[in-house]
Amino acid sequence: MNEFTLWDIVRNLLLAVPWTLLLSAIAFLGGGIVALILLVIGLGRYKKARLAVKLYVELFQSTPLLMQLFLVYFGLPLLNIDVSAWLAATVCLTLYSSAFLTDIWRGSVEALPRGQWDGSASLGLHYLAQLRLVILPQATRMAIPPTVGFLVQLVKSTALASIVGYHELTKTAQILTNATFQPFVIFGLVALMYFFICYPLTRWSRGLERRLARETQ
Predict the structure, then answer these.
(1) Would you say 176 and 4 are in contact if contact means Cβ atoms under 8 Å apart?
(2) Which CATH class is domain 6-215?
(3) Confidence of residue 115 (pLDDT cuts 50, 70, 90)
């Protein structure tokens, strides 16, 4: 492995893991905030606003994340807007996650019986109060398992940020591969690291799904 020992490779990969986790956390939390706003708008009474939210979700769900990264990182500089790899990755992944989370959460809300809306309306609650006090607390229980499942997909999607030069786990592996000419060893270790990050989340998501299924029986 040239001048690199196995420990050198592992150590450099481990140093990149926090950057992968940080990008995942920012994209998930930022996407969640945007998704909550879009959810409130998308469930509202204004048809044009609902249509705008629907188009937003379909746009980001129907186009590859890689293409979105390219458009932001390489396209905005053509408009004299300087974009770093970090900014391009966080913005694209945040918008990408917001579209999917909006869809997941909307489905959870729509799974509730219509009587929940009618009952809360009969109590004199306005739209936002209905959401805050009645609808969202119930929908949250159903939304948690698929939301955690999406988080697993989001962590793996951060690997695409390496294309624009963001130094997360996959980009570090590419650099180490160019220096050591040992792609099988390096990417094997990367696969294990992604596994140890994502597997606990996957197990948690499945456990939540089973528990929810038992509670609703």
Answers:
(1) yes
(2) mainly alpha
(3) confident
Amino acid at 153: Q
Task: Report the distance separating Cα 139 and Cα 132, nearest Å.
Answer: 11
What CA–CA distance (Å, rounded) separates 41 from 161?
30
From the list 180, 200, 164, 199, the residue with the least C-alpha distance to 12 is 180
Token code pair at residue 209 = 């799904």
Distance CA 118, CA 110 (A): 13
Write down the pLDDT at residue 1. Answer: 45
Domain segments of the chain as ranges: 6-215
Report d(CA 116, CA 134) in Å as an integer: 7
**How far lies 24's CA from each of 70, 94, 126, 128, 151, in Å?**
19, 9, 35, 30, 8
DSSP string, 152-213: HHHHHHGGGGGGGT--SHHHHHHHHHHHH--HHHHHHHHHHHHHHHHHHHHHHHHHHHHHHH
Kindly list the distances between the CA atom of residue 61 and the CA atoms of 57, 160, 174, in Å, as whole numbers in the listed order: 6, 16, 28
Name which of 141, 53, 145 is nearest 98 in CA terms.
53
pLDDT at 39: 95
